[in-house]
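User: Teach me something about this protein's shape.
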Amino acid sequence: MEHPFPRPKVLVSRCLGFAACRYDGQQLHSRIVAQLLNHVDFIDVCPEIEAGLGVPRPPIRLCLQDNKIEVWQPAESRCVTNALQKAAVFLAQDITNLDGAILKTKSPSCALQDAKIYNGTDKPQFLQRGSGIFGTLILEGLGHKAVEDEQRLTNRSLREHFLIKLFAWTRFRTIAVTPRMADLVDYHARHKLLFLAYNQKRFRLCGKIVANHERLPAKEVFHQYEQELGQILLKPFLSKAMINTLYHALGWVSEDLSSREKHFIINAIEEYRDERVSLQVVTRLIEAQAIRFNHEYLLGQVLLQPFPAQLSDLSDSGRGRELL
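Assistant: First, the predicted structure itself:
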């Protein structure tokens, strides 16, 4: 039973499939971006083009000079820091209503954590890695939501977490437009099993917020819930916690199953533990039994379909559940 999914609003680096705007005039391909095209509304940006650096253009690099980061264009022997910072601020001025971002890895403008930073501009030496000029602003304004670079999203666990987080935030945004307590109560209840797999302590804090014993205005309650939601989804769930939650979900229908049926689903959960099947393989099996026995509580749980099934993908960078 396919659930309707709201369309997330996602910022994306323009070079990842939208235009040939890379410094060398190339357009790159990102598998996850291509897969998301039919499911999200992308807002594609290129800070370097916005800064007037052109295509193609001599590469830029981040340099630590006099205790501050400068953007240096070696081939032109010029500093373009002000132009790029101005462009980055302009592009990041209206991001609060977005649900996430996918930015270009290693880019001096868009990188979230792995742009090379050099010591000085004259005969520079590699110093460290950090975020790019635009990436820094995105982390500051949107970092609590679904924000990743395209390379890390080749890791199956990080991609799964990104998608869960993206659609959870999108569902919250849709009800926060007109804050009503009934909608928040329903949101909290439908996400129960999913959020318990992420962070039980934070989920229970959210329950106290939703109870609203102080009778605060709905807008204030939504604000408090949003702060805790960011903490719940801050890190990917631990596989052990998700497996425990899957067994908990199975418990709701297990009494109605034959021993052979129960064993079949248990085998699927254990295959998920061993990274041989995706999370959605298991959740769809449990959902099928919920449909069979008309179990409305389970059918209403986001855990069963946290994101569109078409986005479930077993491809991996080779690290399995090891997080980069």
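Now, about its shape. The two ends are 34 Å apart (CA to CA). Residues 227 and 311 are 27 Å apart (CA to CA). If you'd like, I can walk through any region in more detail.
User: That's plenty for now, thanks!
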